[in-house]
Amino acid sequence: HAADAHRTDLMTITRHVLNEQSRNPESRGDFTILLSHIVLGCKFVASAVNKAGLAQLIGLAGETNVQGEEQKKLDVLSNEVFVKALVSSGRTCVLVSEEDEEATFVDPKLRGKYCVCFDPLDGSSNIDCGVSIGTIFGIYMIKDKDNVTLADVLQPGKDMLAAGYCMYGSSCTLVLSTGSGVNGFTLDPSLGEFILTHPDIKIPKKGKIYSVNEGNAKNWDVPVAKFVEKCKYPEDGTPPKSLRYIGSMVADVHRTLLYGGVFLYPADQKSPNGKLRVLYEVFPMSFLMEQAGGQSFTGKERALDLVPTKIHDRSPIFLGSYDDVEEIKALYAEQA
Ligand code: AHM
Ligand code: MG
Predict the structure, then answer these.
(1) How far is the CA of 110 from the centre of ligand 1 (A)?
(2) What is the ipTM of this complex?
(3) What pTM was computed for the model?
(4) Which of 14, 193, 236, 318 is the most exposed place for a label (fewest CB within 10 A)?
């Protein structure tokens, strides 16, 4: 029975990536080792997030002001765990984290060939109320191992080798692409293993949902305003789209990937480059979208063509179902 095989022949994330990498004759398992350290970080954060509410409860009973401190700790703790896991993998050389102003250059004795850009705990405004949050990561290969510089991480997104995110939601889901499609794995807490549950994810060609912080509407440019208007009052006889906005990029993008539709964090008069960060938010999510058959656009160009000049650069972003992003592109072309 197929169902039976599924239950007894467990495709763990390690097994899956080893299979994928074995197609590459030059593979020596380095990527698998790197990934297993990222997975360790995700499991740690998953466990910490699960206990966050409880820690607060204990704090409230005893000390004052623990609430704020507990929350802060989760961000900082997650970052520390990821940095240490990545460094100790012996496979990294440059790390960029949303939490650290400067890039980390790994001690030459521990250096490997990969650069990792990550947001250890994204969606921090949602921690306190127990809403989904996530980790996002993108991986590059260094250009020259004898001359490691910031240029190794200031590469266009299309040069990423792999990207993914882990969502700490009603279950813990890790979505990964190594450049040949997108696969989703769910943490089985009793095994402590991520199991392949969403093989070869493809985003629907057109969606029924749009996702945006509409509170910023008064500062939007014309194409964004027109697009959202069309979502609500379609001119082609199709039903209006539904609005869903969690305010956690990982959760909003995950829903977009599975159900289709479009997620936007546009530029506006107040923030001319939008809010989201190129290296560890825009690029990894754009990489996944394209690998799943969707598109990602900045309002000017394909998002993965952007060349960042600073590690914490921001960019406007429109990503999701192919046809929906096509519509946004047309509105920008019209205006130009
Ligand atoms: P953060 O890194 O401070 O958590 O901010 C990033 C988050 C994203 O997860 C989310 O898409 C966005 O900010 C929501 O922003 P807003 O509250 O402006 O709608
Ligand atoms: Mg973030």
Answers:
(1) 34
(2) 0.96
(3) 0.94
(4) 236
